[in-house]
Design a protein that fits this description.
Blueprint (H helix, E strand, L loop, with lengths): L1 H19 L21 H5 L13 H4 L11 E9 L4 E11 L3 E17 L9 E18 L2 E14 L2 E16 L4 E13 L1 E2 L2 E2 L5 E17 L2 E16 L18 E10 L3 E8 L7 E9 L2 E9 L6 E10 L1
Antiparallel strand pairs: 1-2, 1-16, 2-3, 3-4, 4-5, 5-6, 6-7, 7-10, 8-9, 10-11, 11-12, 12-13, 13-14, 14-15, 15-16
């Protein structure tokens, strides 16, 4: 009970801190850098990114750095996502080193579209092509105090649009709490708090938000196949996200942003600690309403795939990732 009280106290402090932060209106400009709102790996994307309180390895560097200290092993993750509708490519690489009560994380995250046509007039063929690039390099530190963990991430950010570019810095901070013999986890994170230099004449506004999440093992049972029992575990993850500024619009055409509070929720069925099947849904004003995915463990390797259909003819995104535990 004392640990839970500490968790609530610090969480309340995080929320109050955001309430007194200066409101930068940027002349009514909406946010950019929306690649920071997409779950870094296929594991996250298959459950609609609702993993503020779930153990997903290096993805926590961007979702909730406190979760790193609750990991059981070191891990390295590589992930790639392609959205054919705009040829946007998201890539992620992350590393988690887990000590006794602390953990360190390093990660690279990028989004690239290098095939955007431009025209100087009404011509049938473009005059050429230009690129839109986004890049983040991040480092995290997390420490546990019994069932409670805290963590922080520092990020260097870079963006390029045509011939203009800019850089900036941001931070994530998080809390996590194990409960009921780790069958229930609570998480909270403040994400993307920072600023960018001017791009041309205006600075891009970061999509800052608070994420409140839970991960619950709902049901554990077994089934019989060829005289052997196959254990099954059904879990649910859910995040409620509170944008702290206007995040309408999209800089990559994916329409992944939201301008009001919204829910990301996912179900995952683990079969014999080998196969994971998952599905997710998100509420609010979004074109990415549903997602599905699957994962398989082979020795120390964890392969994941996510299928992300967009509404209104925006196409389908596919993501794959490989996680190695050591």
């Amino acid at each position: 009970m004392k640990t839970f009280t500490i968790y609530l106290t610090v969480l309340t402090g995080m929320i109050l801190l955001t309430a007194i932060l200066p409101d930068r209106t940027y002349g009514g400009q909406s946010t950019g850098m929306h690649f920071l709102l997409v779950g870094p790996s296929a594991h996250n994307m298959g459950a609609s990114d609702g993993h503020t309180a779930a153990l997903t390895g290096a993805s926590a560097i961007y979702l909730n750095p406190a979760m790193l200290a609750l990991e059981n092993r070191n891990s390295a993750t590589l992930s790639y996502m392609l959205w054919p509708a705009t040829d946007t490519q998201n890539s992620f690489a992350g590393l988690v080193y887990k000590g006794d009560r602390q953990a360190f994380g390093l990660a690279l995250l990028s989004s690239l579209n290098d095939d955007i046509p431009f025209r100087s007039g009404a011509t049938s063929n473009p005059d050429g092509y230009f690129a839109v690039r986004y890049f983040s390099m991040a480092g995290s530190y997390s420490r546990s105090f019994g069932p409670l963990a805290v963590g922080v991430t520092g990020m260097y950010l870079y963006e390029q649009f045509f011939r203009q570019d800019a850089s900036g810095f941001a931070a994530n901070a998080g809390l996590a709490l194990n409960m009921l013999e780790e069958r229930v986890r609570l998480g909270a994170s403040l994400r993307n708090l920072g600023s960018m230099q001017d791009l041309a004449e205006t600075a891009t506004r970061l999509p800052t938000l608070i994420s409140l999440g839970t991960n619950v093992q709902l049901l554990q049972f077994s089934t019989t196949a060829v005289e052997d029992e196959i254990p099954l575990l059904l879990s649910v993850t859910a995040d409620y996200n509170i944008p702290l500024n206007d995040v309408s619009g999209s800089d990559d055409g994916a329409i992944l942003s939201q301008d009001a509070g919204y829910l990301n929720a996912g179900l995952e069925l683990n079969i014999a600690q080998i196969i994971d099947l998952r599905a997710g849904v998100r509420t609010g004003d979004t074109q990415r309403r549903f997602s599905t995915g699957a994962g398989i463990f082979i020795s120390d390797f964890y392969f994941n795939y996510a299928f992300l259909p967009f509404q209104d003819g925006f196409g389908v995104a596919h993501a794959v990732s490989l996680q190695y535990y050591f």
